[in-house]
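Why this split exists: single-chain examples teach little about how molecules sit against one another. For that reason, every record in the complexes split bundles all components of an assembly together and asks for one structure covering all of them. Below is a record exactly as it appears in the raw files.
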Amino acid sequence: MKEQKLSAEKSIDIRFQDVDMMQVVWHGAYITYMEDAREAFGEQHGLSYKLFIAEKIMTPMVDMQVKYLRPLRYGMKPVIRISYRPSDAAKIIFDYEIFDPEKGCVYLRAQTTQVFMDFDYNLLWYSPEFYLNWKKEHGLE
Amino acid sequence: MKEQKLSAEKSIDIRFQDVDMMQVVWHGAYITYMEDAREAFGEQHGLSYKLFIAEKIMTPMVDMQVKYLRPLRYGMKPVIRISYRPSDAAKIIFDYEIFDPEKGCVYLRAQTTQVFMDFDYNLLWYSPEFYLNWKKEHGLE
Amino acid sequence: MKEQKLSAEKSIDIRFQDVDMMQVVWHGAYITYMEDAREAFGEQHGLSYKLFIAEKIMTPMVDMQVKYLRPLRYGMKPVIRISYRPSDAAKIIFDYEIFDPEKGCVYLRAQTTQVFMDFDYNLLWYSPEFYLNWKKEHGLE
Amino acid sequence: MKEQKLSAEKSIDIRFQDVDMMQVVWHGAYITYMEDAREAFGEQHGLSYKLFIAEKIMTPMVDMQVKYLRPLRYGMKPVIRISYRPSDAAKIIFDYEIFDPEKGCVYLRAQTTQVFMDFDYNLLWYSPEFYLNWKKEHGLE
């Protein structure tokens, strides 16, 4: 039996500049938290941007869905968890959850989908080989 | 018969800083284009942030769905169109489209949903009166 | 006698996201206003980023000095003026002023210095020819 | 004899979004690195934004001077050091240096000056008492 849920967690440092005049985190700042989560996932599981660049592959975002459940405020110490969602398509799909590890409440749920493009901006119809190998190594076929 | 589609258009100035190392607009920069579109809509149709603040109402984002269809690049001159989607719920729903007015191609489609909160962070179950009046004035009931 | 002060003006749209929890524009947001001013100057006077890119020249920032004189707030309608400061060195120097055209008060004064680099990241010791020509055309020698 | 140099260090995670189309960190992204450094200093030495807010004091930026010495690129692992510069004036002055702890080279030097304002946006002519106490506790008079 294979483990089907690769994930990573990262604590969020809410910046002064992330908070808007309503004293809550501006909805666009979460995009950065999600990017930080992808970087943390990549470092932890060997799937970093740097690897893609070395393989001359870009992974542009094609879909992003965000549900804001509760406002974050300055001084809070939330955690973002990013989980890899296996897919047969030539796509990278991540689920995200921002939560308070002590109170247990959830602030955000989101999902992003990225595709593969070569450096001439051609969409790849099939997943690149190094990515298929990465999946194989992690039992994600 | 009532006109059910209030909308506004704004040309997008792609900034140098919006473009990432892949030479395309970073996916998070579109959040700002969409915020600019909401401001343009608000100014044109009398529903600005300033009005909400004067009424001591916040309109936090609770849902955002973005489909990135084609990459934008530095030097392009796209337009964003924002359209108000009437709803009976105590919500403000906008649809967005970024397109090239000459070539006719579409770069992004998105939808956002905002709710009403008072300055004590209580969710409003009903739309505030000034908002209902605004809808009435624009034949949006 | 030659005109020695090339300049451009642009009105600033203060965004909701530019304002911090203290209800004033966050100090980092002015960097974007200054970048917008450089773009406006470039478009108006034929010295755009696109031209530099076409010439395979980068113009990285090497020095930035900013004096914040008064806070900007949401709803204000300030103007930024950018002025080219002629220099014999292989540098591009701009002065900036953000002011209220009606009240006459000044919110910010700044200066930036950029240098020339080729696409291999070598600093250019002399101004590139197209830039010298541009200066000549504008009587800025 | 008193120690006159309070400082803090923080490693910088260069984000994908921080890098511009020239493959180097965009000059505005350093403003965020400097804000992160101030937060780190505040947490380490008991002078956080939260403390100021609790005392109903704002500390707006009034002066910022930045020298960019070398470009940062994606994948680098620099460190930012922030040092408190004692002053008799009612000001908070910090010096910053971004450097590579292994190679020893310096990427940026900067200085910021903040003043004190109450929540009615009145400039304070004298340092607030809690700040004077903080200085005393750290031997910074």
